[in-house]
Amino acid sequence: MQKSSLVIDRYTLPHQFEPLLPQAHLAALRERSSEVITQSLRLSGALHPDTVVSLRERVREMNSYYSNRIEGQSIHPRHIARAMRADFSDKPDIARLQRLALAHMDVERELEARIISDATDLPPTLSSAFVREAHRALYGRLSEADRLIEAGHVIEPGGWRTLRVAVDRHEPPPPEALPAFLARFDEVYGGRRLLDDRLLFAAAAHQRMAWIHPFADGNGRACRLQTHYALWSLSNGLWSVSRGLARRRDDDYLHMDAADAPRQGDLDGRGNLSEQALGAWCAWFIDLCADQIAFMARMFDIDGMKARISALITFRAAHDKRIRAEAIAPLHHLFMGGQHRAASFAR
Fold first, then answer.
1. Residue 8 within any structural domain of the chain
2. pTM score, two decimals?
3. Which of 98, 102, 295, 344 is a good FRET partner for 75, with 20 to 30 A between their CA atoms?
4. Within 13 Å, how many C-alpha atoms sit on residue 330's CB side?
5. For residue 3, is it within any domain?
6. Cα–chain-centroid distance for residue 193?
């Protein structure tokens, strides 16, 4: 197929990052989204609410680890566990990443609490105001030294980009054009959506917000936080795209980069950018979510949980005389039924 001959030296008008939703194969994308949404709701519905709250904390640690890994700034999970006990490395680079990991978990707790409480000051998750709030909340928890990046630049929490940048072959809109692009983003993605459309809209919005690149640094982390909470009503905090994006980082970059490309001829939609590539990104993203739901379903396997608890207790009992095999049944009961009063639990 012949490539478009149109060359844009600099993106300055919002129509230049259209389409914002793929129209080709839209019915198929919605059908696949509906299947994935059903799987996700089934996962959260199978667990007791008390168990869900506890498991979210484990997922939160995982999200923090994988978000760093995506940025090529990975530290071992044991460093995160140590940081949670205020035990920081004597190596400055590792200690900085430990503090960033803790900040990421704190931000998730803050945003989660505000979403659950329906806080009136929290903007719609798929809006420029929300991604700005996520960026502010994350980097506002870090000292100026921890926000220092190359060339002596310090990341301003929630501050829109004031410099021109290039991301690989893509040059995002110049700073003076950001308000127009963000306004168009809000117009398309920022409203309330039917449940069946939330996954598809989140997929497209994730790519296009990264395309706008609204911050000088920290765009990836802010976008992933935005996407995580845009999908909150589906995931209930029990899974996140961060793990999938980290484990398939090369594929992520490939699809994101392809969706930045100009329209490839007359059969590739009517926008300035490639509709086929945006559709391919959305399909890949939806399948990625399905993979993460399936992974967490295996981790939370209701039918097999008693056997896993039994294996854990048997192993621990062999090394610690304080742990007894009689703990297996009550631990499984707590996992399935949540907290109980002492008298009820004794019965």
1. no
2. 0.86
3. 295
4. 12
5. no
6. 19
